[in-house]
Amino acid sequence: MAETKKLTDAEKKVKKEWWKDHLKDFQAKDIDGWPVKYYIQVNTPFQSLSKYYLMILDELRAIGDFDLAKVSQTMAASPTSGFYGDVSQRKAYAKEQFDKSMQIITGIIQTVTKLIYSLREFDLIIHIFDDISRGDSIKKFAAEQNLKRIYLDEVDIKKGRGSIHQMSTTQGLEFVALRDSFMVVSDLKSIDDLKVNDRIKRILKDRFNEYLNWSKEYEKDIRGRKKIQMQFLTSQVESLKMQVEWAKPYYILMKQLEISSGVTSAELIPGFDSSLITARVRAFKGGINKAKPQKSMLVTGFANVDFQFRTRPILTRTEQGQSYQHVFRVEVTYTPYVMTNEQYNDMVQIETLEDIDFLKDIVGNSLDAIKDDLQKYVTGGQFKEAEKPKPNEPKPFEFLLYPFEPLLNVFSGLFKPAEKKSEEEAGPELKRYKLENDLKNMTSDMIKSTFESYENFKDENGWMTWTGPLS
Known about the structure:
The chain is α+β, with helices and mostly antiparallel strands. Helix content is 53%, strand content 16%.
């Protein structure tokens, strides 16, 4: 599947409105051209509605051979009901736990960022040592100048008035050439060849010998500290992953316990113990179905099964705890659709954009600026190369056929089956014909599968079913 293009907010809004207005154009139609839709209402004033919901899902899987996905769900309740208060209390607990996890996640991200910038500084210094040991003469000289500057700024400067910087700039001490002499000297022997006074030479020998010993220990220290910080960074990244996994259930729970505040249903009256729950389940099959794909199918068929539960929550208490049982009425609508795989992908993309994983978005955006460094330091920048295909080894006695190979090649085409051309090679005309045929077959299959699932649900409950022709 081709990589989906990242859409702007304006493009998302336009596409969302387009699908809202045009989804009905893809609704499956019967032989007379009428859009197909099946509806049933079940009243159960004394029995839980969850039984019928699960029964419908089982019928869609078993009879229609569909795969299922929950597209959306909403929940609203009378604000004075016990159900509203119980849900709000559970949501507050989920939010409290989620906020604690987010504080830890934010702290880990800050630590990871600091470690990355620290490792970058180590790499700059290690690069200096690499140029000194493996670089050409020009790079080696420049690297030595950088290393001496680090020594003067971080080590020698701590000597105060006795540092090379101070002695070179203090008037009356006659050490003006001390710093320049230190920067150009390459070894202890070359100090005697400098055209400076003996006092400067004595100081240079002492400081340059200290510099040589410091540079060896400094390289070991930097490489060791880098290794330790890389290990610490790896542990912090693993801890970040673990904290995200811990926070995710609480985030999902908060979304599921969201009580819709914009519902204006006349059935939700303050003082009444009532609730309104809606859910949409998508049953799909065809080319997009990865679990049970139909070979080379260019289209996808799906049925949006919309549930609307108008319930009276009843609190039940058991030894395991307390929960609510929803009774009263459920309305179910089956609406089959058929479209091309590309259109289906586009529709699903717009739907999923509304339900972005908040945790992934937060963590991903925070680490986006240093993602290359994370790849470098956490994995070590090592990638396993694809194995090169081994040359075919000759079979035993295959050499006996070599003299007859030209003759065999002449007749080989007579015995080989004709190769099938791909859809692209076959041309747009064949692809168009196949698309039309797939749309026709899938439409017929969707109407039949949806209707059978709908009728079997009624039959399983002992209700009246349709026995005439499907049309």
